[in-house]
Structures are given as structure tokens and as C-alpha cells.
Amino acid sequence: MGNNEYLGKVALVTGAAGGIGEAIARRLAEGGARVVVADLVAERGEAVAEEIGGAFAQCDVRVPSDSRAAVETAVARFGGLDLAVLNAGVVTGGDGFDPQRYRRVVATNLDGVVYGIEAVLPALRARGGGTVVAMSSLAGLVPVPFDPVYGATKAAVVNYVRSYAPLVAHEGIRINALCPGFAETPIIDGFRGVIHDLGMPILEVSDVVDAFETVLGSPDSGECWHLQVGAPVEQVAFAVPGA
């Protein structure tokens, strides 16, 4: 996309202090957007925000008021909000089942999207519409025996997006999910060996950002887009029971 593709737009990106979130924030800023970098990690998040001419909001997506405060930052600093990228996510890690780790993953990956959508809707409505992209994962579409809780949360994000999008389509608000395979970020450090043994190729972060821009540029809503190495990003064709 052109260098001024997002000129005049205001974006909020969660989990933007590193990895895919940071890369998306940088791409949006390069295109002219004013970006709120939302993350728990203040030092790194502030540095990213400064480098891209954006604003930082310390945000724990597990806490509804933090998501609302991040939106308030966008409105106060840049006058509104046009785009939200709900990217923050974690893997389970560790051996066996642990209730605390389970709750952390569910609260971050699923609650973070639910709370994030609720937080951004008023600001998007005030603009007359806007776009939400929720970062799911290929793990939400295929079995992931090495982290079933992670897979469950990502599958839930897909169905939440598909179910919620029709409720706000009449307001000019589009909500889609992006499901990339595992990308070259620190989140996979704990199970690189498993990924290798399963023969799963690892995406470059830049490929995920390119796919994100494809989703962002689509007029469709309530869709789930999947991305794998060596293939273009495509919408998932879901089977309809009884059809």
C-alpha cells in the first residue's frame, strides 16, 4: 500500500511493544496513521510509540478499564479512533494443567478481544464507523496438541468475531479475524522444537503484516482469514451443518 494509505487515520494496537503488534503499529505509522501503542511493558512500549510518533497506553487487556483507557488516549491525543487491532496474546507454557496459567491465557486471548471490542465501539461509532481486526491464529482452526488451551481461546476468538460482526455491520463497523500460522516471534520460543518436529514452517512477521493489510483493505466483515507459509492470505470457507 502507498505511503499515505492511512493518512488521517487513528489506530489502536494492543500487544504493540513487540512481535506482530509492533510490526503492525510501525506499518500503520509508515502509512500516515497516528497509532496508540497499547501494552503492559511500559519501557519498550513507550520507546516504540516515540519512534513512530504515536502515543503509549499501558494496558492489561485482561482488565476492561485498561482497554477503555487506551481508547481514551486515542481520543484525547489524536481526536478519535478509526481502527483497532486486538493483537495481545500469550501461550500457556509449562507442563500439565495449571488453573492459574489457564486463566491467564483465557483472560488475555479471549477476554482481551471481548473487552477490546466493547471498549472501541463507542469511539468507532463517533467516527461513523471503523474497523476491528482481532488476531486469532491457525491454532484456532486446526488441532494444537502441544497447547490445547491456546488453541481453544483462538477458536473462540474466531467464532466471537463471526457472531458479533453482524450486530454492528449496519453502523459501518467491520470486524474480522486473522489466523496466521506461527510467526518468528518470541512467543514460540518455548515450543520451537515441537513446531519443527511437526514440520510446520514458520512465517516471517512481515508476511503477517502484509496479510493484515489485505484484511484491513477488504470490505467484508465477520470473516476469518488464514495465512500459511507459501500461500496467500485467504478467507476460511466454513461448512454449514445441514446445508
Secondary structure blueprint with pairings:
Layout: E1 10-14, H1 19-30, E2 34-39, H2 42-52, E3 55-58, H3 64-78, E4 83-86, H4 99-126, E5 130-135, H5 148-168, E6 173-180, H6 192-197, H7 205-217, E7 224-227, E8 234-235
Parallel strand pairs: 1-2, 1-4, 2-3, 4-5, 5-6, 6-7
Antiparallel strand pairs: 7-8
Helix pairs in contact: 1-7, 3-4, 4-5
User: How big is the Rg?
Assistant: 17 Å
- Please state the second-level CATH architecture: 3-Layer(aba) Sandwich
CATH topology (fold) name: Rossmann fold
Query: What is the fourth-level CATH superfamily?
Result: NAD(P)-binding Rossmann-like Domain
Could you tell me the number of beta strands?
8
Could you give the order of strands across the largest sheet?
3-2-1-4-5-6-7-8
Helix content: 40-55%
Mean pLDDT equals 93
Number of helices: 7
The largest sheet is:
8 strands, mixed
